[in-house]
Amino acid sequence: MSTTTVTSDNLQSTVGDNDIVILDFWADWCGPCRNFAPVYEAASAKHEDIVFGKVDTEAEQQLAGAFGITSIPTLMVFRQGVGVFSQAGALAAPQLEELIDGVRNLDMEDVHKQVEEQKAKMAEQEAAGQAPGGQDPSSQDSGSQAQDQHRSAGAPGTSPTDF
User: Fold this and answer.
1) Who contacts 122 (Cβ-Cβ below 8 Å, separation ≥6)?
2) pLDDT one-digit tens code per residue, 57-97
3) Which residue, of 28, 60, 127, 159, has the greatest Cβ tally within 10 A?
4) SS3 assignment, position 58
5) 12: number of CA atoms within 13 Å, CB side?
6) How, if at all, do strands 20-26 and 4-5 pair?
7) Could you tell me what percent of the chain has a pLDDT over 70?
8) Which one, of 11, 129, 16, lies nearest residue 66 by Cα?
9) What is the helix (H) or strand (E) element at residue 108, kind and residue range?
10) Which of 6, 15, 20, 33 does the annotation list as catalytic?
């Protein structure tokens, strides 16, 4: 399968209607993005069951901002509608294959449990008048909060989130 252009118009259906979606946030002027493109295209041809989406950060600035994209290329991976990985920087082909294998092998029952626990904790904090993380809402940096919601399920100190 070739890559798919993802925009704010089709993001929800792309992530919601497919088991695994990998998004590459890129721009034409970005050298590392251009270098990563053949690796990403080759992986999309090899893994036809995965949706490989490309988000042009110049054309989709609002979408990139909503995901807290500050560096490109950035890869985000969703499994069953849950954000399970986010990382800036181009990957070599073996690293991308390792990422794909890791995402395929995730225990999604456990991931969904973590999402529900995180939602419950956030609801408790909101009810208590606190921002997520136990901080006073007036001191919470909204940019870092958005980024914290889209990290890898396996990275230390991070947890998956529903899309």
Assistant:
1) 132
2) 999 999 999 999 999 999 999 999 999 999 999 999 999 99
3) 60
4) coil
5) 2
6) unpaired
7) 79
8) 11
9) helix 108-127
10) 33
Residues 129 and 34: their CA atoms lie apart, in Å, by 45
Distance CA 39, CA 5 (A): 17
Give the start-to-end residue ranges of the domains of the chain.
4-104, 108-149
CA-based Rg of the chain, rounded to a whole angstrom? 16
Strand pairing partners for 87?
75
pLDDT in tens, 32-62: 999 999 999 999 999 999 999 999 999 999 9
Structure tokens given for 37: 């493109």
Q: Which residue out of 21, 22, 23, 30 is catalytically annotated?
A: 30
Buried (b) or exposed (e) across 113-131, using 16+ Cβ within 10 A? Answer: ebbeebeeebeebeeeeeb
Is 3.40.30.10 the CATH classification of the domain at 4-104? Answer: yes
**Catalytic residue list contains 86:** no
Does the active-site annotation cover 129?
no
Please give the Cα distance from 143 to 131 (Å, whole number): 13
Name 70's Cβ contacts closer than 8 Å, sequence gap at least 6: 88, 147
